[in-house]
Amino acid sequence: MELREKPGKVQKLLELSLRFRLIFVLLMIGFAAAFLVTGWQQMASLPLGASEALGMWIAKFTNVVSAWHSTQYLFVAGLSMLVLYFVFGGVRGGFAGLIALVAFLGALYALGGDEDMLLMFFAVIAGLALLFVAFVKWSVACALFPFVLSWLLLTGFVSWFPMMIGKAWLMWAVLSAIAFSGVMACALVAGKELGDGSPKAGALVKAGKKLLVPVLISSLLAISALVVDMSVVVDAKRIGCAAFLWVAFNVWFFGFTFSTLSFAPWDRIRSGSRRVKMGDKKKKPAKKKK
After folding, report:
1. What is the pTM assigned to this prediction?
2. Cβ(165)–Cβ(241) under 8 Å?
3. Rounded to an integer, what distance in angstroms lies between the CA atom of residue 109 and that of residue 107?
């Protein structure tokens, strides 16, 4: 009799991502380096444009009604993402996604479209991420530096991808927000599993399974919102472009980023003893008949 539950298709795909993680990382480094060498200016224009637009939007903020009309589709997509994080990732995943989303928007606003601050901004983020992954025993610290590395690939891809569904900087900001909140939620969920004594690969796979639906649906809603909100005419060409971008983003998230996360030192936050959850309750003894 088989006591072990057979892995599903999602689990097998995530395990394959971990099995071929070295190939994913080498491809990521190669593509990211190519994007940096050939299109650094285009890559830099994305965060600069997004931060400048965010600052202008906040400066023009007058009331809730006007803000709702200008961002209603994206607001619904973002709210749906957070709800899905709470539903599938639990309290840890939900709050991690919320805090990461606020932190990302705050960092964009702090950048303020200043070109002179851009390199220093990225250097500080990369330096802190490297220090965290080396010395801080937090699950978020383990995920931050791998995310920064894979984020370069996402930025380079969006700068190269021909935008037919809106402005490139807005698409970059939306996808980066989903990615950062998703990675932080995944880190806290994996950290909980490691705290229960699960091995590194098992904890990451469990976290990836819980974050699969939120990331897939939130990215679909966000890209659809941009297609509807920013395209003058929604035709087959734009829909096909959006569909390809959605597939590419999720391949990046669950392929490149997920496999890169596995190189972080997760074992140092793993509990020494494994907690076993008993699913079956003990049967109560039958009452004696009088």
Report:
1. 0.86
2. yes
3. 5
